[in-house]
Amino acid sequence: MSPTKTVAADIRTRNIMAAFRLLFPAARISRSELGRQLGLSRMAANEVTREMLDEHIIREIGEDTRTGRGKRSQVLAIDTAHWRVLSVDLSEPYVLKGAVVDLCGRIVDRTEIPSDDPERADFEDVTALSRQLMDMAGDAPVLGLGLAVPGIVDADGNVIHAVHLGWHDLPARQRLEDALQVPVLVGNATDAALLAERHFGEGSDNSMLIRIGAGVGASLCVNGEIVEGQHYMAGEIGHVVVDPNGPDCACGKRGCVEAYLSTTNLYAQIAADPAARIEILTGAGQMLGRIMAVSLGLLDLGDVALDAPADIAGEAFLNGMRGELSSAMTSHTSHHIPRLHRCQVGSDASLRGQAIAVIHRLVPTIRTRTADGTATH
């Protein structure tokens, strides 16, 4: 391909993705308004939207309702009837969850495989679940599959380390692509949950999600982009030592964040002294506030979402954390702390978020895939 054609194709791809992001997940915008927001001429806007219509990325839903003279412009929305995305979430113990998702990130069908071992996942079960999702998609073309993993994943889709799955240096993306013959995107499950919270919950472009379960981890979004870090370990706070003389942790160290704040530890404390439940959860929130205060002061985020069971991350926990952050971060010159809230997407956060990651990564490839016949049905 000549340099001129390459530049033109790159511009077209950027314009398609910019238009898609304006419409995602559920906006309805007229063709003329879409062109105006993208800074495109009428001809360029028509070319971009025509290609997106031809590839079933968007659809026309009728004329706009503006008053005045002149021809009415067609209103556009994302096409939810054609392409399908598959998503698998391994972040919950005792179950492998799978879903078929449309281009708006909505689940249209789902299934799951139970697991008897909360500390290990059999990759053959992941492959079997993925094949089942392919069958559930029926005749619809599959854009790709996303796999959300509670662990460290590199840019090539290799699972470097996933303690709660028993996986180390596993080429998950390559193995699934070989088995399914569709593009696969493997990512961190907490990053996926933050993506879902941003698009379907209350997350902002500068936000953090802290997940508390059997492990403790976080995800960070700065200026609309998920931060993975130099070694793909951004947000891996669970095994940071906060007290070298603290309780033993499953990782072999003492006094890790996870040893104090995992649901396993908190439930055990509450079971030992039910009358002290509020005090225990308030103290846990205060501890998390102290641990995160420096990082949050450095980053100047708009909000922090807590993704944890409702009986853990309730008002006692949130108020304890909020009070500690206020004490640590406010002064006579600064009165801002991030807004704290529970994750609003629920137990499907990682499932939907990994599907969003696939959608945003692969929508720009639709044109070349349909041209060369590699779109999978």
Structure in words:
- The chain is α/β, with parallel strands linked by helices and 377 residues long.
- The protein has 3 domains: 8-78, Arc Repressor Mutant, subunit A, CATH 1.10.10; 84-192 and 349-372, 2-Layer Sandwich (Nucleotidyltransferase, domain 5); 202-343, Nucleotidyltransferase, domain 5 (2-Layer Sandwich), CATH 3.30.420.40.
- The chain has 12 helices and 16 strands.
- It has helices at residues 3-23, 31-38, 42-54, 123-136, 172-180, 189-200, 257-261, 263-272, 277-299, 315-329, 349-362, 366-372, and strands at 29-30, 58-63, 74-78, 84-89, 95-101, 107-114, 142-149, 152-153, 159-162, 167-170, 184-188, 207-212, 216-222, 225-226, 303-307, 339-342.
- The strands form 4 sheets. The protein has a 5-stranded mixed beta sheet, with helices on both faces. Strands 14-13-12-15-16 form a 5-stranded mixed beta sheet.
- It is globular and about 70 Å long.
Write the layout of secondary structure elements.
Elements: H1 3-23, E1 29-30, H2 31-38, H3 42-54, E2 58-63, E3 74-78, E4 84-89, E5 95-101, E6 107-114, H4 123-136, E7 142-149, E8 152-153, E9 159-162, E10 167-170, H5 172-180, E11 184-188, H6 189-200, E12 207-212, E13 216-222, E14 225-226, H7 257-261, H8 263-272, H9 277-299, E15 303-307, H10 315-329, E16 339-342, H11 349-362, H12 366-372
Parallel strand pairs: 4-7, 7-11, 12-15, 15-16
Antiparallel strand pairs: 1-3, 2-3, 4-5, 5-6, 8-9, 9-10, 12-13, 13-14
Helix pairs in contact: 2-3, 4-5, 6-11, 9-10
